[in-house]
Please model this.
Amino acid sequence: MFRKFALISTLATYILIFIGGLVRVAGAGLGCPDWPKCFGRWIPPLDVSQIPAGVNAAGFNFTLAWIEYLNRLAGVIVGLLILTTAILALKNFRDKKIIFYPAILAAFFVAIQGWYGSVVVSSQLNPIAVSVHMFLALIIVGLLIYVTQHAYYLESKQTQEKKADFDKTKNWIYVLLAVILIQIITGTQLRSQIEILSEKFPLLFEMEILSRVGVINYLHTIIGLAVTILTIFVVYNLFLKKENLNSFMRLNLILIINMIFVQLAVGVGMEVFGIPPVLQVFHMWIASLFFGVVLMLYIEIKTYRIEND
Amino acid sequence: MIEKKFRNVIISIVVIVCLAMLTLVVVDMANRSRAQIPDLGLSPEMNLVERSGSAFGKSNMLGKISVVNFFFTSCKGPCPRMNGRVAEMYHKFSTSDKVQFVSISVDPARDSLTILKQYAENFGVNDNRWLFLRGEIDEVQRINELGFKLGGELPSLHSTKLILVDPAGKIRGYYDSNDDESLRLLTTHVKELLRDLHDS
Model:
């Protein structure tokens, strides 16, 4: 029951991260200029005539308002899912600190994220605020993955522990996780620079903007290559000990190696085709998924479990 | 086992394709909604003179996107604020000669061409993307009231609205120069009209 809920919360959070990116590329983030209401109403207006007196109706756009509002609704649903997970943890796992604390912490960060949504809107989508919003999402999803994985460990049969020497690789995965986070920061910074430039010069095409962004663009490319090399190195090292890997580790490795190349291709595609919205959303989403899968691998290796099948 | 793997791959691909299509649809809907700009009828004929001394008529608006406003140089409060916002947009759109800003003096008795020139320089305007016009007071009144449907006793009670006129000479919107929300919408609409202009 608990682990199902934790798993659903994790998946739902990933869907929400996708929706968040979608809202961003649709340019609908300010579809509702106020928060939590939308043009002073709990249900966004269908027509400009429904906007209450005294509320500025100048920017009203039906489509953008509803896109933003559905994002908020999805946020509420995910928030409630995570809250339920935390309540279940409170009821059932008060003595299992490894589950209890991260579950409570996830709910705490969800509350902060909800409040921070208002900051993002009132800052008029300030690039730093949007990046913090994304980072909070990664923290939440990281905690949920941790909780879910440990919940599964609890409920699965106790397996015989066979020590395999993963210590070195484990440290490399830790480094990889750190570099991924740095890469996500440079990614959000690159995005910010593009936004600042396109606000300043609304007539520049995305391509021209990219060429003017400068050093952060190179940095993002270089660190991207570093992530790729590090990933290949880690996967290779684990592959050498493949008889000691359990099926979950193997699954993670397959996902990781596929994701890194898809992500590289999408990144290059953005440079070549001038940041099409679809690629932009997927680039952000794959980054967060990649972070999650590498984290899962790290947790799995840390718990040193070998299936005895 | 292999079948299960195969099934998972298929499911993943289906999910990704669905998400990609969802993105395309939502982005397209959002873009379309932004491109919907009302048509508020034809802008008036004009018989005015620019600060350079050349005549300015409606034909000078055709083929370009114009942001029109009314002001007078000796006005202290609202005009400098309003034209300050126009100046921001003037700089924003500096890479396009298809966007022009048209400021019409409502106090032609005092605002001579020399004074208008000086006024333009004070705003750092050194090209013809921002035009400063004057004309007979009756003509200005007609353009203001009958043409652009703005009221108010001239000169002191002129409107601080910015008026968007498209390349076909049609009025496409009125924007409150004191309201950020409204000005952001104006920027979006100018961009959309520019896109149409480039596409056609």
About this structure: Chain A touches chain B through 25 residues (CB under 8 Å). The mean pLDDT of chain A is 89.
